[in-house]
Amino acid sequence: MIACVNMPYFAAAVERRDDSTLAEKPLVVGGKPWEPRPVYAFSQEVAQRGVRPGMSLRLAHVLSPDSHFMGAAPAKYQATSSEVIDTLIDFTHLVEPENLWQPTGDTRQLPVGTRSLPARYHVDLEDLPQREAFPLVREIGKTVRSYTGLGPAIGLAADKFTAQVAATLTRPHHARSVPSGTERSFLADRSIEFLPLGKEPARRLRLLGIYTLGQLAELPPAALHTQFGPEIIALYRLARGEGPPHLQPRPAMEPEQVQHLFTAPVANLLTLQRVLERLASELAGRLQKTGMAARNLQLISETEVEAHHHTQILRQPTADPTRLSLVFQEILDQFALTAAVTAFTVTATDLVPATVHQLSLFAREHTTPEMERTLQNVLARHTTAAFYRPLLTDRRHPLPECRFQLRALRETAPRNGALSPIL
Amino acid sequence: MSAEKKRRLEKTVAALQAQWGIRAIRRLQPQARAAIPYVTTGFPSLDKSLSIGGIPRGRITEFIGVPTSGMATLALKITANVQAKGETVVYLDLERTFDPEYAARCGVILEQLILVHPYDGHQAMVILRDFVSGGGPGVLVCDLPLPLLQNPRLTQAFSSNLERILAPLAKSPCALLCLVSLPAGTAVDAASASLAIYPLNLNLPHYATVRLLLQRERWLYRRHDISGYQAQVLVLKNKLGRAGQMVHVDIDFNGMGSAGNQAEGGT
């Protein structure tokens, strides 16, 4: 199942979210009416008066003179879009964003679904049954609304195109599900303008009396191929509700690489381990900066004689310096080094977004009320015993007993019921 | 059974039920077994060998072994798994040998751990009972050192306390882990663990639902340094499943552990 999260008039919605005084006003984003610029975005009321993306601000003012004209803030829209993606990634990493709110190229022949300059995100729910997918989709909608303050319209269907159409036809703050097997009948009455057709094919289809997706789906594909060429066959399949049931995998990210060249060949194992630790730390820093985690780690050890290569695939992607360091140490142990090392190169590939763990999202209290009560009772009763919470202070201290500290717990007043540590 | 015999049996049963109540005698019917709450050990093959998926909650689990046999590591792994669910763990450290740094390497969240250093063995028993009765912690680890176990009066006191905590423990979500240290350097096997070396007055084996015997098999080397050891875990007793399972686990001094892929059948 694929869910399409659609936010029509995205830029205007973001502006209205940030300034509540704009809520009731028709809004044109892009600049003041006298500026020689095209319209960047607009609200629904303005669209109903004939304003289109790419139109000059002066013409937009003629069509909608009482509108509020304001400058665009693409960075703000991009940040909000990133927030939405972050929210969706908490549910699944199979998220495909489409930044349709940025008008680019020829904006005169946009498909119906994109004329409102929406922010659109496709979420692949894989093989989740529809009865379970729909409650999840509603939950996604609620979460997006609570985190971003925007009202998404969500369409759920077995293929991407049907989900898109369903989302476009749904009001904000609502979700619509197209039952499996009924995609074709759902699409039958919809306009062919939902398809990403060019200007000329659309005109020719209209001349042939084909206005709906159902009419297009009824035509013999061989005849369509003859008339319009091979490109139309993919659109014909979309019109029949036979679009791809899964999202295309995202292209792989550029690998991160860190290298250390020794000024002189080194054979001391401890030195090599320290250098690897430093490289792991640097690599982890780079990964954390980009919000990625590595699933595949490679270590190349160049000696005076030869070069050793080894790749380790991790069970869980990580950007933790300690974990990376441990893996590199393990790889180093596997090399039968017979000569001094001249260079180390560590590479992190197969990068995936480092998703937030559920535990940190819904972090619980360290102690439950029951535990607090029990502990209070025990502390009050056994005054001669010592109760501690251990705390690591210096992991690298040469004396093991100096690496941690025991923080004593003492009984507190019963009315606040909280434990206070004393050092 | 003939019809006459069946009729007479039913008549007798009816008479007994009339005299002693309907529950005095009844037919045995297969009942669906309720799922027993458990805590995973962090070693999948060991979890599998324990039948229910891990260490049972509301019961006593006993770890037996000589020092450096993996008892503490196993207890710390269980602690880390419980803490991942947001629960608090209490560690009764009678010997004062708890190493926070190693615990952290095993994945233990130190902020969610309460370390108790009792004044003496008697107080330890009472604290243990109070924590169990309160029902707060997810796991309660009681590290029983050798001197305590060699003192007949303390073992007697511990045994009498065990009787008292069984009922509140069964109602609580707490898994009580008792680490029983045997004298170092002794050859330990299933028979000696239950007979020769085991403290005489300690009736922990009687009350424990699960008893695990841990033995260090061999050291693991990385280059020329010892990096850990392989331990053998034998399920001596399991009231909730089959006993006699044997599992090998690799324990690294870095806190990493991996379940051995060899699990042997019962004996």
Structure description:
The complex is a heterodimer of chains A (423) and B (267). Chain A has 423 residues and is of the alpha+beta class. Chain A has a five-stranded mixed beta sheet. Chain A has a four-stranded antiparallel beta sheet with strand order 9-12-10-11, with helices on one face. Chain A has a three-stranded mixed beta sheet with strand order 3-2-4. Mean pLDDT of chain A is 80; it is low at 357-365 and 413-423. Chain A contains 15 helices and 15 strands. The radius of gyration of chain A is 30 Å and the shape is extended. Chain B contains nine helices and eleven strands. The two termini of chain B are 39 Å apart. In chain B, 43% of the residues are buried. Chain B has a nine-stranded mixed beta sheet with strand order 5-4-6-7-3-8-9-10-11, sandwiched between helices. Chain B has 267 residues and is α/β, with parallel strands linked by helices. Mean pLDDT of chain B is 81; it is low at 259-267. Chains A and B meet through helix 15, strand 13 and strand 14 of A and helix 4, strand 5 and helix 5 of B.
What are the key terms here?
heterodimer; A: 423 residues; alpha+beta; five-stranded mixed β-sheet; 37% helix; 23% strand; B: 267 residues; alpha/beta; nine-stranded mixed β-sheet; two-stranded antiparallel sheet; 34% helix; disordered C terminus
Can you lay out the helices and strands and say which pair or pack?
The complex is a heterodimer of chains A (423) and B (267).
Chain A (H helix, E strand, L loop, with lengths): L1 E6 L2 H9 L8 E3 L11 E2 L1 H5 L8 H7 L4 E3 L3 H16 L5 E4 L20 E6 L5 H19 L4 E5 L2 H9 L6 E3 L5 H6 L10 H9 L5 H6 L2 H8 L2 H9 L16 E11 L2 H22 L1 E12 L3 E12 L2 H14 L6 E13 L4 H4 L7 H13 L4 E7 L11 E7 L9 E3 L1
Chain B lengths: L2 H18 L17 E2 L4 H6 L5 E2 L3 E6 L5 H13 L5 E5 L6 H6 L7 E5 L3 H14 L4 E6 L1 H4 L2 H20 L3 E7 L8 H5 L9 H4 L2 E13 L2 E14 L7 E7 L4 E8 L3
Parallel strand pairs in B: 3-7, 3-8, 4-5, 4-6, 6-7
Antiparallel strand pairs in B: 1-2, 8-9, 9-10, 10-11
Helix pairs in contact in B: 5-7
